[in-house]
Sequence to fold (253 residues):
Amino acid sequence: MRITRTIEETRAALHGEVGLVPTMGAYHAGHLSLFAAAREENEQVVASLFVNPAQFCDASDLARYPRDEAVDAAIAEEAGVDVLFAPPAEELYPPGYETWVDVEQASQGLEGAHRPGHFRGVATICLKLFNIVRPRRAYFGQKDAQQVEVLRRMIRDLNLELELRVLPTVRDADGLALSSRNERLSEEERAAALALPRALATHDLERARELLAGIDVDYLEIARFDPPVLAAAVRVGDIRLIDNVPLREGEIR
Fold:
């Protein structure tokens, strides 16, 4: 595996049909599922490793985000990643940077309401990565359903020539969706957090509300994405967790 730091280095390393997996590191089994799909479907797999400051609304949240490039690089190489693009912030946001992508309607509500500017940062960095790598396919997880919707709209509206591949959420044995934030949960907090996947597993908004009684809920609602999802964000201690489950036609009321 080759680790690149600059746009020029990365472009020079590209060949054949490319699959791109944009990431911020702290790799877990969810990332491995994306790497595996990209490895199976493309001649070359490129992963980005960049904690994007533009999508963080809270400076303390950005500061706490786990970073261990050596560990992530070893995992990526073992998973068959060919190129790991790990640039410094100034490579992607040089002095004087002032251009942003705003997907207006898809960014509203849910995460957009609680994290102002988050999806502007997501859309901008993903468009930059798409332009740098020019992938045939880009891989994301269903866990971030609104992010997927934002990127789907951007790809459509800007006539980008790539396929958005969305893989199912990967969960621990107890049902909790994998996230770097899970490592910060105490044993007691993790037990409380299990109310989230159990509520969503009902596929029923009213029943989910009942099961989340006593939990600090930012939102719980049906989002008419493609596919529609029952989505929620909750706070357990000082940890904020998001999750969703896709809904079938008869489950949307």
